């Protein structure tokens, strides 16, 4: 499975992305368990709201963190997220 660059990316309705105060980090909750996220992963997934494409997500994060060259890392993470059904594209 690969990310289709020009299609919006949506966080899965079967999962929930939320801040866990006890762990001081974002997590993905789903019926079978929980996945703890690092800050970078959480920042990417927060932008997967069915309105943004890969390029828009990359652009927003590069602006937010005043950097460039994030395309490969973000694409790789979204590929993992897609494989795990945390995100989808329609």
From TrEMBL:
<comment type="subunit">
    <text>Monomer. Interacts with PqqE.</text>
</comment>
<comment type="pathway">
    <text>Cofactor biosynthesis; pyrroloquinoline quinone biosynthesis.</text>
</comment>
<protein>
    <submittedName>
        <fullName>Coenzyme PQQ synthesis protein D</fullName>
    </submittedName>
</protein>
<dbReference type="InterPro" id="IPR008792">
    <property type="entry name" value="PQQD"/>
</dbReference>
<dbReference type="GO" id="GO:0048038">
    <property type="term" value="F:quinone binding"/>
</dbReference>
<dbReference type="InterPro" id="IPR041881">
    <property type="entry name" value="PqqD_sf"/>
</dbReference>
<dbReference type="InterPro" id="IPR022479">
    <property type="entry name" value="PqqD_bac"/>
</dbReference>
<keyword id="KW-0884">PQQ biosynthesis</keyword>
<dbReference type="Pfam" id="PF05402">
    <property type="entry name" value="PqqD"/>
</dbReference>
<dbReference type="GO" id="GO:0018189">
    <property type="term" value="P:pyrroloquinoline quinone biosynthetic process"/>
</dbReference>
């Amino acid at each position: 499975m690969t990310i289709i660059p020009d299609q919006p990316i949506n966080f899965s309705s079967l999962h929930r992305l939320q801040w866990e105060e006890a762990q001081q980090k974002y997590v993905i909750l789903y019926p079978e368990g929980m996945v703890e996220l690092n800050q970078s992963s959480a920042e990417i997934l927060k932008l997967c709201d069915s309105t943004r494409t890969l390029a828009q997500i990359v652009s927003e994060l590069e602006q937010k963190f005043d950097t460039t060259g994030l395309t490969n890392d973000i694409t790789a993470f979204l590929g993992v997220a897609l494989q795990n059904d945390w995100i989808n594209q329609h």
